[in-house]
Amino acid sequence: MDERFEKLEKYNPWGGHWPSLGFTRTEYTDKIYAYRGNRLVKVLVGQRRVGKSYILRQLASKLVENGVGRRNIFFVNRELSDFDFLKTYQDLDALFKLYKARINPQGRIYLFIDEVQNIEGWERVVNSYSQDYVDEYELFISGSNSKMLSGELATLLSGRYVNFEIFPFSFREYTGITQQEQTKQSFVEYMGSGGMPELFMLPDRELKRNYMSAVKDTVLLRDIIQRHSIKDARLLEDIFVYLVNNASNLLSIRNISNYFQSNGRKTSYDTVAAYIGYIEDAYLIHRVERYNIKGKETIAGNCKYYANDLSFNNYLYQGFGYGAGYMLENMVYLELARHGFDIYVGSIKGKEVDFVAIKGDRIAYIQSAYMLIDPQTIEREYTALQAIEDNFEKIVVSLDEITLPSKGGIKHIQAWRLNDVL
């Protein structure tokens, strides 16, 4: 038997094998599954190890549960060494044709291609099969680089795809997998650990630290250093560390460049800008631009960066004194991003609003505060929101045990209940 087919059979339901589905992430599977039954390419993007492969398997399983024949599922994960032979789109096309010849599926075929960016020229296969009007195909693909939909594929498909960004576990998912109530205590535990799915299978902190170190090294090496032929790998990692430990602070590329130069590092503004861009492309860090609330326009210059998960700080870089208030702000950002908001740092009359969150016609202004412990703190956190003259939602999020009454239309939400109002 062809060795390629044996490897394909090993990872597909028609081969009698159904790999672990893990914790069912219905917040994603329900949303993606709703787009089935058409030629739109379903694209899952996000950092490595956030669970894209599990979600793809859960989608394939859901299709089978709802009547799709197992023989109509074609699933490859290019991240697995068994599929190292899939170097180019010709290799992938040949494997798919081998599958069709051996399995002879009837009707619509569902192609799942995990970590597709590791296959050179993959865009050609995706475009060809998604637009085939003789046979019926439906494609689900995943990748770990935000630029995978730029260039040729975006031009070829011209809107014939739908994009889903996958994040580490949300607080709701965390309490689901740990079987806890959504309380302040469980939220603080979640904030002190992080949402990377495989962390929950590791029994102690040292193993978790080693795991997060391996994740960081893999992403930096495979998604950045090798892809972009990085010359100064140490500088790349140091910039990542700097961004993680300055998350929630206003930063500029010029200031970051000056910081490293003042510490004797040979670098330039352009190099720092490029390396930060690569870190963003790999979904390790998210950039948030400033926004003039009154003028309704973005402001060039300083911006904020947020970590894709707090586990990088919690297990790798704790010595930097990253405060709980900054961690909470990072958590609020991630929750807004999970809900599909466009997110900005607001500026109004010389005051900063942590988040301007926009989704369709909905706009919410949100302040994040660790604890509203005294009148001065309350005044500081509410003042910026009070300066906004429109009537959109205004929210203060904190870890206080007691919910404060509404003040001038500004709602107070306990952090562990934020998902309920988004």
Topology:
Blueprint (H helix, E strand, L loop, with lengths): L2 H8 L15 H8 L7 E5 L6 H14 L7 E5 L11 H15 L5 E6 L7 H9 L6 E7 L8 H6 L3 E5 L5 H8 L5 H8 L13 H24 L4 H13 L4 E2 L1 H10 L6 H13 L3 E8 L4 E11 L3 H6 L7 H15 L3 E7 L2 E9 L2 E7 L6 H12 L6 E6 L11 E5 L3 H4 L1
Parallel strand pairs: 1-4, 1-5, 2-3, 3-4, 7-9, 11-12, 12-13
Antiparallel strand pairs: 6-8, 7-8, 9-10, 10-11
Helix pairs in contact: 2-3, 4-5
Structural class: alpha/beta
Largest sheet properties: 8 strands, mixed
- Spatial separation of the terminal alpha carbons: 53 Å
Compute the CA-based radius of gyration: 23 Å
Overall helicity: 40-55%
Pick out the low-confidence regions.
none
Number of strands: 13
Mean pLDDT score: 94
N to C succession of SSEs = HHEHEHEHEHEHHHHEHHEEHHEEEHEEH
How many individual domains? Answer: 2
Strand order of the largest sheet: 6-8-7-9-10-11-12-13
- Number of helices in the DSSP assignment: 16
* Beta-strand residue fraction: 15-25%
Question: What is the 3D form?
Answer: globular
